[in-house]
Amino acid sequence: MDFREAAKLGSCLSKDYAEDLFRLLVTYESISASESASRLNIHIKTTQDFLEDLFALDILDREEVYEGKRPYFRYSLKVNKISVSVDLTRLKVIEKETDSRLRMRIREMKNAKARFTTSRSNDYISNVVVWMGEGRDRTERKFNLSIPQGRFLFHLPFPTAESLTVAEIMNKAGVENIYIPEIVDIVHVLLDLQVIEST
Amino acid sequence: MYFSRRQRYEFSITGFIPAISCIALYAVTLIFFGPKVGIAVAGAFFILYSLFSIWIFSRTRNLSYIAAFLFQFFFGLFFLTHPKLSFFWTVNSRISGLILLMCIASTVWLFYLFFKKKAKWKGREVFELASVSTDPQPDGFTGRPRPAGRMDYTKDELMDFARFLSSNLVAMPYFEDDRVVLVPVKMDDAFSYLFNPGRFRKERSWIAFDFHGNVTVNISKRDYLGYKEEFSFDQLCDGLGKLFIRFMDYYRKGEAERIIYELNEVGLGLTS
Q1: Which of A133, A146, B13, B24 has CA atoms 20 to 30 A from the CA of A113?
Q2: Per-residue DSSP letters for A24-65?
């Protein structure tokens, strides 16, 4: 199960009426959306969506039935147990040292609307506050940094300095390669917010 | 060596406030209460100001403040005790003559230190030297500190170096848990430092030497705007870092006098 499916299933299971609906599905051989909605006293559209989601997740089976002029679906349970298993390691963006993002040359942008705060030990940046918008609409976003990210940004070239590659800055800051994904992540966030620039 | 001035000249009357106050106080009391009361008030002012000088000495360990203390104290004492000037407590004329001799001796010493630039806060010279090899480049300012390099020194050497800079009014040290932060103080900034060192530290440029040999530099916006031109901020930070690394190197080699020589070579005036 990928993360998106797990999220969808989680959302279904968290509904107030989920347990009652599953009880109906276990009890009945097959049941339509209208029957379950009337039985649980909830809106038919709500029931229809719920059952369709479970069908999409391969938990229910459905059969099209013709009764009079309008066809409708009857749903039956396909499984007796539901288990959620998500491989979180698949979320990690794997970067190689030779990745183009490591060769990207960056430096702080001129007049960046950001404030860098140093840590107590003063050898890394502990957070970056970025101001967005103008005048009364101005808001600020604070990014608390991991220590490798903070050490990386501590060595980020100044706006008028010659830009360096991400790999060179990591080397200067003594940041190990296992932290590449989180470094690349913060670089991209700050690039998007125009705190740093790529040259 | 010729240095073109790269900082704006800022005339501040802060340093003259005590002298102006003393003259004003003397004039007012002279007009309303006569010359003897005027002299007594001026004498009391001198004595009080001598306590301020000794307090500055305790903070900086700079000899010129001892000279200033002696100068102010003996002049105050002379005014308050001279048989012809004082009206409430006098000493005989021989002791008064001895006090006058001390006045003259301390004045000579104070003037000697003043003209040898020993009494000069040298922050402005520091920023001039830091900008020597920088190119104009706009929009470079950032509030981030910059790693300036690494060097080898012991903790004791660092502490002694910091005290040396303090006693020569080059940069005032702030001793932290794992590093020493040096803040250059300009002549017109001396009172700001003396009366509110905590706030001064936050708002001014600094150079930090940690106990592992890392040197970090931060130039404040205020000091950056003190330059006539917008210099490459990166080069400026680099210049300041290298300057202090060089100073530390001189100090470790036992050539501390070269630091003072280099700063005096900039050739700024005695009060700027």
Answers
A1: A146
A2: HHHHSSSEEHHHHHHHHT--HHHHHHHHHHHHHTTSEEEEEE
Contact B144 A125 (CB under 8 A): yes
- What is the C-alpha to C-alpha distance for residues A64 and A52, in angstroms, rounded to an integer? 13
* Chain B hits for A125, Cβ within 8 Å: 144
Q: For residue B64, give both structure tokens.
A: 């010129």
**pLDDT tens figures, A75-133:** 999 998 998 888 888 777 665 656 777 889 999 998 888 999 988 777 889 999 998 88
Least Cα distance to B272 among B29, B7, B1 occurs for: B7
pLDDT tens readout for residues B140-161: 888 889 999 889 999 999 999 9
Shortest Cα–Cα distance, A96 to chain B (Å): 28
> A29: closest CA among A61, A64, A70, A53?
A61
- ipTM reported for the complex, 2 dp: 0.71
Question: What's the longest Cα–Cα distance across chain B?
Answer: 68
Dihedral sign for Cα B243, B247, B253, B255, please: positive
Nearest CA-CA partner of A76 in A95, A98, A54, A108: A54
Distance CA B101, CA B23 (A): 23
